[in-house]
Amino acid sequence: MARIIDKNTRLIDIDFGPLSVATSRQAAEFFADVVTVGRNGQSQLLNLIPPSGLTPPVQPLLGSFIQYERLDLSFMTNNNEIMLPTEVSVQRTSPVPLGSNINGNNFDQIEEYIFILTRPLNNTELATRVDGTYYELMRDMGLDASSSTGLLGPNVSGNAGWPNQAQTIYAEKRMYSYNSNLMATIANGELQPAPSPYNSLAGMPNLDSVTSWGSMGAITGPNLHCYRMVINRNQTFPALVGTFNNVAVAGSSTCNWPPVSIRFLCTDPGYSEGEYLTRLANAMNSIAEDGETA
To answer: Into how many domains does the chain fold?
Structure first.
């Protein structure tokens, strides 16, 4: 439903619910092998990377996830109101995911993406995948000059190709990292040597950077397709012989992802009927093909 601000202004929003993702890794293993999720954001999960599915039967992106919501804009035309979203704001209750990282990977950053598209991706394909290949491809999405590599790209976006800038209303990338000053170290409380079960103990990560892109032109609908994607390698320890030695201790990580509210301010952009129909056609001219979407 739209919130009426005044006779010429409406406010609509989409919310991603909070999600708790916990992963655990056995001693001396390279990747986590258990993942559990909680809180009401589960109902919006389109994809969650499980511990198995490839060879070897573990996932370096275990616990990474995609949430999805569709925003119906048809009320604007059903009510004979030519009011279209012209401004966007993103609000959240915490700038970073809360939680802890015990004996975890503190050298890979956590990535969070928000995509607001005028056409859906192939959600049926995304929902059934058990590997992180599509996550890597979706990193480069939403600008005219961006390109995806590999044979799996069309399966996500259809034969029409990846969404261009005009079809990407808003996109945002946030990067988080763990600061050694916020860990249990010699500087603020040295961990006990063996047989202590802890090799490193860290709290919540820091926010490193925020990048945004997209067209943010007046949106003609009929729907907006909203994705929240998180790439997380909290319990990943690669096998780098001669470079990196995996200490034989178990690890666990918990990220409590805060809710996100994406709000659109709707006003009359002053389009003629022809301009309105042209923009609607442009927004929908690359609907994903080859199967169900959303």
So the answer is: 1
